[in-house]
Design goal:
The protein has a six-stranded antiparallel sheet with strand order 1-2-4-5-6-3. Helix content is about 30%, strand content about 35%. It has a single domain, classed as Thiol Ester Dehydrase, Chain A (Roll). The chain is of the alpha+beta class. Helix 1 crosses helix 3.
């Protein structure tokens, strides 16, 4: 698996070992509905997680990306991002999507390239400190499926909850 590093990671991601992305991909593949999506990790820079999947696996009756596949990819990218930050902090926690909203802006007639990052105003340090102190924490995440010519085919906003395992 080829994994591209986009930029130097922020301090919170410095403790992420080289195998973390391999473990994340293995976890994705362990879920039968996700395994058939043929997704790959396209990059991670400590702030943004990018996933890729071929259009051929996600095409609808109009020849563009199936809306459910786009929603799934953005949910998975966001979940993976939060999970990577929890792991980098040395914590053992379950991560759940609490709620989400999606807007479909334009049909996507190309492979699915999704990028997830913390929502504006969200702070990883606060999220991790709260998880350490209280055993549970929330963070807002945003994701987009990119159009080949630029811009977004979809916009996704969500809140994720992490709960420390006992």
């Amino acid at each position: 698996m080829s994994l591209e590093t986009i930029a130097p990671p922020p301090p919170a991601a410095l403790h992420l070992d080289d195998d973390a992305l391999v473990r994340l991909k293995t976890h994705y593949d362990s879920m039968p509905p996700v395994a058939v999506m043929d997704l790959s990790i396209a990059g991670y820079d400590g702030r943004r997680l990018r996933l890729h999947a071929p259009l051929a696996r996600h095409v609808n009756d109009k020849g563009c990306a199936f809306g459910g596949s786009l929603a799934s990819m953005m949910t998975l990218a966001s979940w993976g991002l939060v999970s990577l930050h929890v792991e980098a902090a040395g914590l053992d926690a379950d991560v759940f999507v609490a709620d989400s909203q999606i807007g479909y802006l334009a049909p996507l007639f190309a492979d699915l390239d999704v990028e997830a990052e913390a929502a504006p105003g969200a702070d990883w340090a606060t999220f991790i400190a709260t998880l350490r102190a209280r055993g549970r924490a929330r963070i807002g995440v945003v994701a987009h499926a990119r159009l080949p010519e630029g811009g977004s085919a979809t916009e996704f906003t969500a809140r994720y909850v992490a709960i420390r395992r006992r």
